[in-house]
Amino acid sequence: MMLESAVFRFAGLVVLASLALAHWVHPGFLWLTAFAGFNMVLVSFTGFCPAITAYNRLRARVGKPL
Asked: 39 in a domain, yes or no?
């Protein structure tokens, strides 16, 4: 799996989980959705991605693309 694919998958899971939590638990979880969206916009302008930094620090294995 490519590193970018892992980051997109993680961001998608964060958005979906926060929407489910906002629906069933508390609307305040929508801030987590806003945070994920803000990070995606940040990456598009600056190229800096906190999730990639975290994956690199965890030494996540990145394979060849499918």
From this structure: yes
Q: How many domains are contained in the chain?
A: 1
63: in domain: no
| 20 in a structural domain | yes
Instruction: Quote the pLDDT of residue 16.
Output: 96
What residue numbers bound the domain in which 44 lies? 3-57
Ramachandran assignment for 58, one of left (phi > 0), alpha (psi -120 to 50 degrees), beta (any other): alpha
Q: What is the value of pTM for the model shown?
A: 0.79
Per-residue pLDDT tens for 36-65?
999 999 999 999 988 888 888 887 666 555
